[in-house]
Amino acid sequence: MGMVAMIAALLSAVTAAPAQAISRDSRVKTLVIAANAGDSFHSTLRLNFDSPISQQQAAAITSAMAGPTVTPTGESMWCLGYISRNDANSTFYIQYNCGSPRTLTWGWKLSASLQSVIVSSVSEIGLQWWRNGAFAGQNAPHVVPKDYTIHGTMNPVYAGNDIDYQDYATFRHNVGTGGTGSVSWAGSVILRN
């Protein structure tokens, strides 16, 4: 089982439904909304509220922001292959470059709907990645405007590698009573040639 599959299993255990409200009494302090876009990419949005919101507000926010969910697995890539996936939270792309050395270039951008509720810059920790289950590195962190495409390179990679990746970004939002939000995302590709 690849790293992404293990992370996905943990996330599905934590978020048994596509969206889950974590609450005290009848007020909601945190919403967790999963949105998966297929084999190579999935993300989870977490909204913490400065002041708790009602169950009805939480249901309306979840309905407006939730996307479809599927179970992610590794997606095959060949030289010069390009994959682009989007879900309710963001768009992710990855390209397999077969020069010397071989690399995976990637980019990630928040969806327009999520950008519309962000009222701060976005702080991203730097993409972490694994080659065949072994930690291979971490890209530089970014603090960027909400509409920026965060990008980087996984280097080097080799034919036959199973590459798992994940990242995490935080921001302030104006949903309900406002608060902090985060998006974690992950995926996996299998390099075929």
Give a verbal description of the structure.
The protein has three helices and 14 strands. The protein is mainly beta and 193 residues long. It has one domain. Strands 1, 2, 3, 4, 8, 9, 10, 11, 13 and 14 form a ten-stranded mixed sheet that branches. Strands 5-6-7-12 form a four-stranded antiparallel sheet. A hairpin with a 5-residue loop joins strand 13 and strand 14 (179-191). The radius of gyration is 17 Å and the shape is elongated. The two termini are 21 Å apart. Residues 1-20 have low confidence and may be disordered.
E-strand count: 14
Principal-axes shape call: elongated
Helix and strand content put the structural class at mainly beta
Instruction: Extract low-pLDDT stretches.
Output: 1-20
What is the string of SSEs from the N terminus onward?
HEEEHEEEEHEEEEEEE
What's the mean pLDDT score? 84
Instruction: Determine Rg (CA atoms, Å).
Output: 17 Å
Percent range of helical residues:
10-25%
Question: Main sheet, how many strands, which sense, barrel?
Answer: 10 strands, mixed
**Helix segment tally:** 3
Domain count: 1
Strand content: over 45%
Task: Provide the fold topology.
Elements: H1 3-14, E1 19-24, E2 27-36, E3 42-54, H2 55-65, E4 75-77, E5 82-86, E6 90-97, E7 103-110, H3 112-115, E8 122-124, E9 128-131, E10 134-138, E11 142-144, E12 150-154, E13 162-173, E14 179-191
Parallel strand pairs: 4-14
Antiparallel strand pairs: 1-2, 2-3, 3-14, 5-6, 6-7, 7-12, 8-11, 8-13, 9-10, 9-13, 13-14
